[in-house]
Design goal:
The complex is a heterodimer of chains A (818) and B (470). Chain A is an alpha+beta fold. In chain A, helix 24 packs antiparallel against helix 25. Chain A contains 31 helices and 17 strands. Among the domains of chain A are: 85 residues, no CATH class; 90 residues, no CATH class; 159 residues, Jelly Rolls (Sandwich), CATH 2.60.120. Chain B has 2 domains: 354 residues, Alkaline Phosphatase, subunit A (3-Layer(aba) Sandwich); 66 residues, no CATH class. Chain B is built from 12 helices and 11 strands.
Chain lengths: 818, 470
């Protein structure tokens, strides 16, 4: 849906040419096709075309936009009434676009883009690109507010004191954690949990093929369950005789609630125990201890042994634990560090010192020191700001670094770190500031400069800052010349998975499948309590993740192969693993690995609409919701959302269902459609949603519900009829194909621009839709169409706020930023 | 400590999962709030009443801090179970309010308050978004999916601006919504309206924090207890130098950007100034309070536990006088959360549109009761905390518990379900059920704000005056 209002350009009250064409060519058509409801005394929806003044013709884009949308989607004139011929429809559309909206097709208005704060996903990914370290921004920052269906909408992404506080703290944590704070450290060798092996046991204790949560496990160290008996070791190669310190860092990890498991943890160095303690329940405990050693050169073995102990007794007054529950307590080896030789003379440069201080330790001379700082900070700030840092800002950073360096207890490294924190706290980092190309100065709608363009591309396709190559092209002014090749390179880069994840995750709500409440037993009509011996029924994390992956992989497959976006709606393939195949009732798929799967002829699956993800996120926790499913299709596939329900809706209990029995869902909804007030929306939503009734709220296929055969037949408000969801998919990809093209274009454009679309964007969208019509809807046509469009390529010139204040005039001429 | 007995639910709920409740652990070693306030925890100047204005704001007649909090529960209430029988002091609590039985003389059930700006007007659907956005602002939320969000300043922020200077934090914003749904929210309204109740300006919400650990660390410092003060001081020094830099940086950008961009930068600058103020006054607030509680872990898996932790933190913040103004959004209006812990598999929003189905109506009642049990536990905690004047913290508080929807089935916004707990330092008439006929909800807020010492604010949102005899 497009939202109108702000951003509309003020136009002169009457446009003589537009008015003349209207009276000559358009008004007669409206008279023929629209006046039955919107003229001659009729004003349905409070619209009467014959009441419009000449000024209304060019100053009410909202009215004309609705007219255009309804006309093109065949919603008006309604089914059964005479319709304009295709040529007449085109004439009306042309008049609306070029006269009522005043769009100049040769220089369309790119619209207003507000400076955009990075959302928490972009923040985390940008920190990783910038510094090479992960930062758990999704755990540290509160969820971002969304608008227009996405979480990257500039106008909605606000900053509150809480958030700024978090930015300051994150800057501190990130920089202190990654930038060496001194130039001399005792040498150290670190072994992580992954380096520990069971040298005596039969097999390597590696995690095996369990992919779920692997990344986290690696980061947290190799977990050993309390219930196992495990002895794992690592050998350190020591180069020379000296004093060393062995620092252990282990963690106990368990569920939030009390658990009775206990174990014994013994750590030894060269076979001599140095730590021996029982461990019980703790949901998050870090165990750290050190042992000093005087070692000869050669191999030294560090061993950690875990063995189960008798279970703890339950606290008084609390009943026993459900024996079916698996124990989840475990010991994790986070790291074992050997530091040494520990004498001061053996100190060395920290391992990644040269990464941040490329010329080694700073000179003792103030001038050289400052010059060095300037070089380091110029590079860092320019990368972080995604454009060359200006001299004034750079000098302020250098001054900040120097003030810390020269303060008592300060150092060069701490000074640089402080300046880097300032960079990460700066609005130039937290916001994406854009500039226009100086060569276009004076243009009505200038192009973005290439640094801004590089950022638009990288945040669109990677959800992070531009890489070195993009930045280098922008510096040389060659990005535009290589634009399509760069887009291809970016899509081929693994970072483009962020686009699939974030765009699909929100457009198709695939993100939500991981946490929506679904009660599998209730959906299947089973009693709430499972009797012993009954099969377990669960909508577990593994299934949810598989559903999310399926949708993402289908999208990814279409992108990688530059296939038609129509396959998102209707295709004969999908991606499955064993848990998901079970949900779908498909035999012969084993293992947890997702793989390409060709569906049999006549399958109800194929296309994302019948993916488990979409089917479940549009359901209620215990049953399907045809209304939600219908609304999902209208909002996200056909792009003709139902108008909002009218105020003061009478509650349905007043409505009587014939027959005196408990109404079925279909009958309940029929009551909706019989009611004049409800019909305008429900006649659009319900048939779409009911088409999916062959799938329950878990995404299982079904032919009957409560013993009654499913009736999935329906007729769209535009007249097309179908017998089940397969027919509906065909209608979407054929008769309603243009609606779908337009919808997906609008969604991608919203995501790419970080703003809702406005009426003046209709020209850009139309061009892309037309190109997609010509080549069957190839993904590249869609993506490059958006990237090459005026709204993506250009912006309104910035009228500086300071000048505004000086001029004191709130009204700006047409086409300016304010 | 006076914790009310929880009544048994009307029908036997699903057998609870047998596990040791986390709370047991928290009581043993953690967030135990039963101790009296140590005077050293409180800033001396609150006691002495030496804050900037003449009449010390947010201070009771006996010199204790006066607090106010607003707790939002979603989707309206089962009307039959909510309202008490009888009026005035002679009233019997309805089924939903049974958990408040032991606190009956410390609360008042307030009827007859409306949120007209939450009604459809010319805006059509979207009652949940409006209920949420209008609840504390009394203003009409502009119907936009995100291009031009606009509602109003919420009562807590009005108060924070006027009387928030007395404490380390002007206000505290909490939420139990840690996961936001993807895609669109309520019919044509940006999700910002549905996940925020506190607004510092008509266009900028005060982001609430859902993570108990971060709330604790923000209030009381991070790290082991003995290192918190040092960590805090170090962080203050670092932040001070960063703020000096970014303030100037933001200003230098300001005149290079457009009007709308400048509004975004203003949000940034406002936040910078808020933190600066805190750093500047840090010394006068003395060392960080040391609550008798351990740092809570992150977000608990069970909703009830999450609510309890957030309530505990709000109570701790009040007890230690870290702030006197708080908001807690238990869940954004329209939430479809299921309640397996009380045997309700259906979603809350689905149940609330019961279309007269008695089973669903009962389920709404049980969900309301579940929410009320946790609220009652919170009040019990506050009641068990001794304040510096010998009263309980609850007596020196004004706590609004309510929803911007009354009947979730019909989306009505009149006669909202509201409980006002606490005696406001002895100025509120508690132990009664009072009905104001049909007055703006914001009249209650204006009255509360004045009690907090807010002056020169003629109205809040659509308020028309003060509530007589509150």
């Amino acid at each position: 849906m497009l939202f109108l209002g702000l951003g509309s350009l003020a136009r002169a009250a009457t446009q003589p040419a537009a008015v003349a064409t209207y009276h000559k060519d358009i008004s007669p058509l409206l008279e023929d096709y629209c006046y039955e409801c919107h003229g001659d005394g009729m004003a349905k929806g409070k619209v009467a075309f014959d009441d419009l003044t000449d000024a209304d013709l060019t100053t009410r884009p909202d009215l004309w936009f609705n007219a255009l949308q309804n006309l093109r989607a065949d919603i008006m004139p309604p089914l059964g009434k005479p319709r304009p011929t295709p040529d007449e429809e085109k004439a009306i559309a042309r008049w609306i676009k070029y006269s009522a909206f005043g769009i100049d097709p040769n220089d369309p208005d790119p619209g207003r883009v507000t400076i955009r704060r990075m959302n928490r996903i972009e923040y985390g990914r940008t920190v990783r690109s910038l510094l090479g370290v992960p930062y758990p921004s999704e755990a540290e920052f509160p969820p971002d507010d969304t608008g227009h269906g996405f979480d990257n909408i500039a106008d909605v992404l606000s900053i509150s004191p809480l958030l700024l506080e978090k930015y300051l703290q994150a800057a501190d944590t990130i920089i202190t954690g990654v930038v060496p704070q001194t130039s001399r450290v005792t040498p150290e060798v670190t072994a992580t949990g992954r380096d520990f092996r069971d040298y005596d046991g039969p097999q390597d204790l590696d995690d095996g093929e369990d992919n779920a949560g692997n990344a986290e496990r690696t980061a947290m160290g190799r977990p050993i369950k309390y219930a196992e008996t495990a002895t794992v070791s690592h050998d350190f190669d020591i180069a020379r005789d000296a004093n060393y310190s062995v620092d252990f860092k282990l963690a106990v990890h368990g569920p939030f609630n009390f658990d009775i498991e206990r174990c014994r943890v013994v750590a030894s160095v060269d076979g001599v125990p140095c730590f021996d303690e029982p461990e019980g329940w703790f949901d998050d405990k870090v165990i750290q201890f050190s042992k000093d050693e005087t070692w000869k050169a050669g191999k030294h073995r560090v061993t950690i042994a875990v063995s189960p102990l008798a279970k703890a007794s339950w606290p008084v007054g609390i009943a026993g634990k459900d024996p079916r529950e698996k124990t989840t307590l475990e010991v994790r080896i986070i790291s074992v560090k050997v530091k040494g030789p520990t004498d001061p003379a053996s100190r060395i440069l920290p391992a990644d010192y040269l990464r941040f201080f490329p010329k080694g330790e700073p000179s003792r001379f103030g001038f050289l020191r400052e010059q060095y700082a300037r070089g380091i900070l110029r590079d860092f700030a320019s990368r972080a700001f995604r454009r060359p840092v200006d001299d004034r800002t750079l000098e302020r950073l250098v001054r900040l670094a120097r003030s810390v360096d020269t303060a008592p207890g300060g150092s060069f490294e701490v000074g640089i770190s402080r300046a880097m924190m300032a960079v990460l706290s700066s609005p130039r980092f937290i916001f994406r500031l854009e500039q226009t190309d100086p060569a276009d100065a004076g243009a009505r709608f200038p192009r973005l400069d290439e640094y801004s363009l590089a950022s638009r591309l990288s945040y669109l396709l990677w959800s992070t800052m531009p890489d070195a190559r993009l930045t280098e092209l922008a510096r040389k002014g060659q990005l535009r010349a290589n634009l399509h090749a760069e887009v291809q390179r970016m899509l081929d880069d693994p970072q483009s998975s962020a686009f699939v994840r974030n765009f699909t995750g929100q457009w198709l709500q695939a993100r939500d499948v991981e946490f929506i409440p679904i009660n599998a037993r209730a959906v299947l009509g089973l009693p709430a309590e499972r009797k012993p011996g009954d099969p377990r029924v669960d909508f577990d994390g593994e299934t949810r993740r598989a559903m999310r992956s399926e949708t993402e992989m289908v999208v990814s497959y279409i992108i990688k192969g530059d296939r038609s976006v129509l396959e998102l709606v209707d295709s004969n393939y999908t991606f499955l693993n064993a848990p998901l195949a079970k949900v779908y009732g498909i035999d012969g798929v084993s293992g947890k690995q997702m793989r390409f799967y060709t569906l049999p002829q006549g399958s109800f699956r194929g296309g994302v609409l019948t993916d488990g993800s979409v089917l479940t996120v549009t359901s209620n926790p215990t049953r399907t919701s045809p209304v939600k499913r219908g609304q999902f299709i209208l909002e996200n596939i056909l792009g003709t959302p139902a108008p909002p329900p009218p105020p003061n809706i009478p509650p349905l209990e007043d409505a009587k269902v014939p027959g005196g029995h408990d109404p079925t869902l279909r009958e309940m909804l029929a009551v909706h459609r019989d009611n004049q007030l409800c019909r305008s929306c429900h006649a659009r939503m319900d048939p779409l949603g009911l088409a999916f009734e062959n799938f329950n709220a878990l995404g299982n296929f079904r032919e009957k519900e409560a013993g009654v055969p499913i009736n999935a037949t329906g007729k769209l408000i535009t007249g097309e009829e179908f017998t089940d969801v397969r027919g509906l998919k065909k209608i979407i990809t054929h008769e309603r194909r243009t609606d779908y093209y337009r919808c997906i274009t609008e969604k991608l454009m919203t995501y790419a621009l970080g703003r809702g679309l406005e009426y003046y964007d209709v020209e850009a969208v139309d061009r892309i839709v037309m190109d997609m019509e010509h080549d069957g809807g190839r993904f590249s046509t869609l993506l490059l169409g958006v990237i090459d469009s005026a709204p993506f390529e250009r912006r309104r010139p910035v009228i500086k706020a300071s000048l505004m204040a000086l001029s004191g005039s709130p009204k700006m001429a047409t086409g300016n930023e304010n | 400590m006076n914790i009310p007995q929880l009544p048994s639910t009307p029908e036997p709920a699903r057998k609870p999962k047998l596990e040791v409740d986390r709370r047991l652990f928290l009581k043993g070693v953690g967030v135990c709030l039963g101790m009296p306030v140590l005077e050293s925890m409180l800033p001396a100047k609150a006691l002495a009443g030496t804050v900037a204005t003449d009449a010390a704001p947010a201070v009771t007649a006996t010199g204790a801090p006066l607090r106010m909090a607003f707790v939002y529960f979603p989707n309206g209430a089962n009307q039959k179970n909510w309202w008490p029988a009888g009026n005035g002091a002679d009233f019997a609590l309805g089924p939903t309010m049974q958990p408040l039985l032991g606190l009956k003389d410390k609360i008042q059930v307030v009827g007859g308050l409306d949120l007209h700006e939450a009604e459809p007007g010319n805006d059509g659907g979207g009652d949940h978004a409006r209920a949420n956005a209008t609840f504390l602002t009394g203003a009409r939320a502009r119907k936009t999916d995100g291009s031009d969000i606009h509602v109003g300043i919420s009562v807590d922020q009005v108060a924070a601006k006027h009387v928030g200077q007395a404490t380390r934090f002007q206000s505290l914003e909490l939420s139990c919504d840690s996961v936001h749904k993807a895609g669109h929210c309520d019919t044509g309204y940006s999700c910002a309206y549905q996940y925020n109740i506190s607004w510092q300006s008509p266009t900028t919400p005060m982001t609430p924090e859902p993570n108990p650990r971060f709330v604790f660390e923000r209030l009381f410092g991070s790290g082991p207890p003995e290192q918190r003060q040092r960590n805090y001081e170090m962080r203050m020094r670092t932040q001070k130098s960063l703020l000096d830099f970014v303030l100037d940086d933001a200003r230098s950008i300001q005149d290079q950007v457009s009007q709308r961009d400048q509004e975004k930068l203003d949000e940034y600058l406002t936040s910078v100034r808020d933190i600066e103020r805190r750093l500047e006054h840090a010394e006068s607030f003395g060392p960080l309070p040391k609550p008798d509680a351990t740092t809570p872990p992150g977000i608990p898996p069970a909703y009830g536990q999450h609510m309890d932790l957030m309530y505990d933190l709000l109570a701790l913040a009040f007890q230690t006088d870290s702030t006197r103004i708080g908001t807690l959004l238990l869940a954004g209006d329209g939430t479809n959360r299921a309640f397996p812990e009380i045997g309700i598999a259906e979603g809350h929003h689905y149940c609330s549109h019961h279309h007269g189905n008695q089973d669903l109506i009962d389920k709404v009642g049980r969900i309301d009761l579940f929410y009320m049990q946790h609220f009652a536990r919170f009040l019990g905690k506050l009641d068990g905390m001794k304040d510096i004047d010998g009263k309980s913290v609850l007596e020196n508080s004004m706590i609004v518990y309510g929803c911007g929807n009354s009947d979730g089935n019909r989306h009505t916004h009149t006669n909202l379900p509201v409980v006002l707990a606490g005696q406001g330092g002895g100025t509120l008439t508690t132990g009664r059920s009072v009905h104001y006929g049909s007055l703006p909800m914001t009249n209650l807020y204006l009255t509360m704000a004045q009690r907090m010492g807010v002056t020169g604010v003629p109205r809040i949102g659509d308020s028309t005056g003060l509530l007589a005899a509150l």
